[in-house]
Amino acid sequence: MGMCFPCPGESAPPTPDLEEKRAKLAEAAERRQKEAASRGILDAQSVEEKRKKKEKLEKQIAASGPPPEGGLR
C-alpha cells in the first residue's frame, strides 16, 4: 500500500536552499520575459537599434527646447 510519510529510519530528501530556489525562479522569470518580448520578431537586433535611434531623437528634441516663435501656423 502507498505510504504518505517516509519510514522512521529514512530521512526526508534534501530541500533546496531558499536562495537557490529564488535564483532559479528569477532566472526562469527573466527567460520568460525575454521570450515574450521577442515573440513574433524575426530580427530582434534591428528592432533594438530602431528603438535606440528613436530614443536618441526624442532626447535631441527635448534638449533643443520649444520651437522658436514665428514657426508654422
UniProtKB/TrEMBL annotation:
Biased composition (Basic and acidic residues): 25-37, 47-59
InterPro entries tied to this protein: SVIP, SVIP_metazoa
One GO CC term on file: endoplasmic reticulum membrane
Keywords from the named record: Lipoprotein, Myristate, Palmitate
Molecular function GO labels: ATPase binding
Region (Disordered): 1-20, 25-73
One of the GO BP terms on file: negative regulation of ERAD pathway
Record flagged with keyword Nucleus: no
PANTHER family cross-referenced by the UniProt entry: SMALL VCP/P97-INTERACTING PROTEIN, SMALL VCP_P97-INTERACTING PROTEIN
Name of the protein this chain belongs to: Small VCP interacting protein
Species of the source: Otolemur garnettii
